């Protein structure tokens, strides 16, 4: 298991678990996160082993900025600290991140980030290396779980050498890739906790920042030289055609060369991808006549390489984004084809599989709200209460309310924007505005927007879809669910309705979304309330929650059924399947959890409580 | 063995992640290199999922390149079609006949093909298709939750499978919670009888 102190043991670890193992081997003292795919399992793994390890302070923070500040405080207290988040989380943490680099960290500070080329579960494809450039700190990119583990361990030492945070950049593909990892030792001792007062470096006042900026530049310069000699800069000089690749994408290069038996290609495999090892890059382009730069998303290496070639008057043809896309994740086929085209050489292998059947044979399968999910009922009731409303929403499982037939999400930008955008929409538009936000998202960045809506007297209707867990990212606890960061029960959950009450919101209701008729009435009442924001907590537990008790599936009274299809085509619970032969719905007993919300949806009383069999 | 690539596909929540882990764990015990690329996050909510399982002495990336899959374990009929470009000509397909009808069909926006149509499409790539209603077998044995074990049992019987049934069963014992081991092994054993 992950905590085994058995050097040489080989285990199957996911990239995200390998981050944790690397941190343990580095003697980590503080770990924290705000969950976000594809980085969530880093925090979840720290949570899982926190009590057994008894060697690090661990917390789920309310957002990425708070999480980063927690890790910074750890570093300043002489404890090796790690914070994990998804790429867009850095946008939230950036305020702290881009200023603390001036004064610097003390004990090793590692920022483990999950980028998401191809937008598997994110609102954009931003390339986190830009933050490394922006903040002038190193970025490392592993190519396998083994490298992830080893790199994280090295990152703490690198951070201490230059007093800078070190970013470990995984992408969805590396974070969620599992592979063999050979363990190293876990040290018995942790650093002693010491907070040394040092106003110049820990209080970035304007005068201090002015004084420290040249120091940051100087540290960055020495870092650049250091990286050329790092074992993570792997250069093999062979023929005049050269390839430079970052971390994971290096695998696609190696695989292409392997399949094609191409041995005379020079290859520079970068593990530290910012700052770039400029002396090594110069050596490489002086050796080659043509270079292909393989990097997903932004052309950061390519542009640097072109500058180095220009500054040093090196005649070399540099290919990059002219032959490779700036969007989406790469794979072996894309890289193979680019190599063969730029060499140029006729391929001996084709990565073209059997053609897919026509689309009509493959009905689309979008991710959907689970059978019995309370969010479905909330959205259904909102649409029933006011089909002409405007529906700003937010980030979580409930974003899936955007899909037909629910169509109850009109906008989604970033965490917390439902209330920020929604309260302003209510100022400008005559339609009623129903903003939906999840429990965790509310605490993340919804709170300041609620204060703003109240203060500026917006008539937005805020519907907090509270399923008592941070569901989408894999069931992490949050302040209102009654669990702490290690899933122990706490006596004092922080209830959103009490916060709203204390703020002075005038219209506050708590509803059970599975009671659809009552919910519709409350939403209508809220829309009619025009004296500031209304705040409705729509509370029912996530049916994926540990310990969730399924109830008896509902039954169909086929005599009463009028075949109107409202249950399947408007409410669209996956547990109800339309049967074209009988013209009645069928209940899938594996899927139905007996929430009984559909009973109130049926206009003819044909869906009835199930009987124990 | 240089490389053996297994394409595992189905619907989020069907247990593909554990099944891929069991195969990878077996490979590690046999001192092979492994890479498993999985789908997490939003697509797990009843969406289409694919796991790339690569084992052998020469494995690089987490993704199986198109046309390089040696075997496909399809937990759902339509999902086998969506990823059939990943397998080689003549690859083995283990196929569950039991459909999970997507909401797009329920909402009347699309239609679900018959099993015969699915099979006919797959036969463009290979004739080596082993199929049964694995969901039914699972439900009758350890519950639908043990579907992945039935599929693994079927996998253990294909001629090119790099592992014996006993190898895989050992990993099940190592990775499944003790109180569920017996049920899972029973489901696995049922899967092994499909070919006979």
Describe the structure.
Chain A is of the alpha/beta class and 613 residues long. Chain A has 4 domains: 10-228, Rossmann fold; 233-342, Rossmann fold, CATH 3.40.50.920; 374-539, Thiamin diphosphate (ThDP)-binding fold, Pyr/PP domains (Rossmann fold); 555-608, Alpha-Beta Plaits (2-Layer Sandwich), CATH 3.30.70.20. Chain A is 37% helix and 16% strand. Chain A starts with 9 loop residues before the first strand and ends in a 5-residue tail after the last strand. The mean pLDDT of chain B is 93. Chain B is built from 8 helices and 6 strands, in the order βαβββαβααβαααα. Chain B has one domain (4-192): Pyruvate-ferredoxin Oxidoreductase, domain 3. Chain B has helices at residues 16-29, 77-82, 103-106, 115-122, 134-141, 147-156, 165-175, 178-192; strands at 4-11, 33-37, 48-56, 69-74, 87-96, 129-132. Helices cover 39% and strands 21% of the residues of chain B. The chains are: A alpha/beta (613), B alpha/beta (196). At the A-B interface, β1, β8, α10, α13 and β20 of A face α1, β2, α2, α3 and α4 of B.
Question: Any descriptors?
Answer:
heterodimer; A: 613 residues; Rossmann fold; 7-stranded mixed β-sheet; B: 196 residues; alpha/beta; Pyruvate-ferredoxin Oxidoreductase, domain 3; 6-stranded mixed β-sheet; 8 helices; 21% strand; globular
- Give the rounded overall mean pLDDT of chain B: 93
SSE sequence of chain B, one letter per element: EHEEEHEHHEHHHH
How far apart, in Å, are the first and last alpha carbons of chain B?
Answer: 27 Å
Strand content of chain A: 15-25%
Average pLDDT for all residues of chain A: 96
Strand order, main sheet of chain B: write it out: 2-3-1-4-5-6
Count of DSSP-assigned helices of chain A: 20
Number of E strands of chain B: 6
Chain pair forming the biggest interface: A-B, 63 and 62 residues
Q: Count of DSSP helices of chain B?
A: 8
> Can you tell me the CATH architecture of the largest domain in chain A?
3-Layer(aba) Sandwich
Cα shape of chain B: globular
The CATH class of chain B, by name, is Alpha Beta
CATH-assigned homologous superfamily of chain B: Pyruvate-ferredoxin oxidoreductase, PFOR, domain III
Please tell me how large the radius of gyration of chain A is.
27 Å
Helix content of chain A: 25-40%
Q: What is the C-alpha radius of gyration of chain B, as a whole number of Å?
A: 16 Å
């Amino acid at each position: 298991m992950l905590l085994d102190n058995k050097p040489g043991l080989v285990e199957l670890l996911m990239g995200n678990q390998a981050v944790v193992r690397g941190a343990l081997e580095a003697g980590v003292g503080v770990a924290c996160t705000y969950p976000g795919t594809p980085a969530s399992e880093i925090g979840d793994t720290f949570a899982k082993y926190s009590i057994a390890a008894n060697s690090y302070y661990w917390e789920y923070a309310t957002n990425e900025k708070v999480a980063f500040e927690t890790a910074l405080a750890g570093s300043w207290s002489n404890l090796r600290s790690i914070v994990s988040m998804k790429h867009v989380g850095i946008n939230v943490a950036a305020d702290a991140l881009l200023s603390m680099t001036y004064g610097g960290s003390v004990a090793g500070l590692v920022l483990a980030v999950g980028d998401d080329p191809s937008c598997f579960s994110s609102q954009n494809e931003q390339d986190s290396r830009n933050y490394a450039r922006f903040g002038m700190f190193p970025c490392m990119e592993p190519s396998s779980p083994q490298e992830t583990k080893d790199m994280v361990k090295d990152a703490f030492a690198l951070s201490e050498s230059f007093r800078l945070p070190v970013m470990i950049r995984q992408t969805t593909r590396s974070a969620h890739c599992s592979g063999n990892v050979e363990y190293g030792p876990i040290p018995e001792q942790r650093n002693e906790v010491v907070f040394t007062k040092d106003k110049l470096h820990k209080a970035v006042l304007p005068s201090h920042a002015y004084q420290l900026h040249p120091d940051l530049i100087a540290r960055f310069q020495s870092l650049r030289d250091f990286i050329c000699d790092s074992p993570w800069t792997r250069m093999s000089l062979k023929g005049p055609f050269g390839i430079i690749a970052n971390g994971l994408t290096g695998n696609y290069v190696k695989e292409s060369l392997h399949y094609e038996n191409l041995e005379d290609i020079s290859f520079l495999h970068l593990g530290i991808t910012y700052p770039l090892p400029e002396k090594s890059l110069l050596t490489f382009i002086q050796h080659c006549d043509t270079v292909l730069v393989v990097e997903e998303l932004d052309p950061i290496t390519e542009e640097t390489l072109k500058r180095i070639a220009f500054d040093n008057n090196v005649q070399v043809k540099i290919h990059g984004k002219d032959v490779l896309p700036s969007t989406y994740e790469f794979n072996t086929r894309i890289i193979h084809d680019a190599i063969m085209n730029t060499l140029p050489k006729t391929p001996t292998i084709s990565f073209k599989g059997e053609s897919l059947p026509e689309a009509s044979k493959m009905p689309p399968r979008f991710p959907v709200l689970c059978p019995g999910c309370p969010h479905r009922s909330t959205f259904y009731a909102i649409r029933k209460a006011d089909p002409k409303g405007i529906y700003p929403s937010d980030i979580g499982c409930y974003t899936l309310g955007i899909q037909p037939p629910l169509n109850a999400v009109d906008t989604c930008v970033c965490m917390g924007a439902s209330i920020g955008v929604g309260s302003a929409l209510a100022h400008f538009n005559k339609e009623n505005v129903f903003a939906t936000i999840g429990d965790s998202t509310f605490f993340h960045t919804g709170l300041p927007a609620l204060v703003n809506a109240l203060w500026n007297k917006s008539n937005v209707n805020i519907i907090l879809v509270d399923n008592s867990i941070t569901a989408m990212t894999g069931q992490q606890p949050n302040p209102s669910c009654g669990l702490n960061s290690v899933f122990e029960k706490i006596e004092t959950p922080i209830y959103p309705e009490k916060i709203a009450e204390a703020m002075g919101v005038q219209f506050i209701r708590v509803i059970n979304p599975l009671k659809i008729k009552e919910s519709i009435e409350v939403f209508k009442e809220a829309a009619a309330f025009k004296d500031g924001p209304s705040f409705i907590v729509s509370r029912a537990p996530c049916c994926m929650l540990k310990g969730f008790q399924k109830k008896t599936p509902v039954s169909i009274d086929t005599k009463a059924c009028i075949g109107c299809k409202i249950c399947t085509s408007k409410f669209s619970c996956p547990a109800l399947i339309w049967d074209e032969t009988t013209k009645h719905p069928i209940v899938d007993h594996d899927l139905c959890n007996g929430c009984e919300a559909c009973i109130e949806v049926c206009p003819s009383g044909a869906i009835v409580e199930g009987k124990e069999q | 063995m240089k490389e053996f690539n297994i394409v595992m596909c189905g619907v989020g929540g069907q247990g593909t992640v554990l099944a891929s882990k069991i195969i990878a764990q077996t490979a590690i015990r046999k001192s092979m290199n492994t890479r498993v690329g999985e789908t997490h996050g939003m697509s797990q909510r009843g969406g289409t999922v694919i796991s790339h399982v690569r084992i052998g002495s020469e494995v690089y990336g987490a993704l199986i390149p198109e046309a390089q899959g040696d075997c496909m374990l399809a937990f759902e009929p339509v999902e086998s079609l969506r990823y059939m470009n990943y397998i080689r000509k003549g690859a083995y397909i283990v196929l569950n006949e039991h459909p999970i009808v997507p909401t797009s069909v329920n909402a009347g926006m699309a239609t679900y093909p018959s099993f015969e149509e699915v099979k006919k499409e797959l036969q463009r790539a290979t004739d080596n298709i082993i199929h049964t209603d694995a969901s039914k077998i699972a439900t009758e044995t350890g519950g639908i939750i043990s579907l992945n074990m039935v599929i693994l049992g079927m996998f253990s019987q294909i001629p090119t499978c790099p592992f014996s049934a006993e190898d895989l069963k050992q990993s099940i014992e190592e990775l499944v919670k003790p109180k569920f081991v017996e049920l899972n092994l029973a489901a696995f054993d049922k899967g092994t009888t499909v070919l006979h």
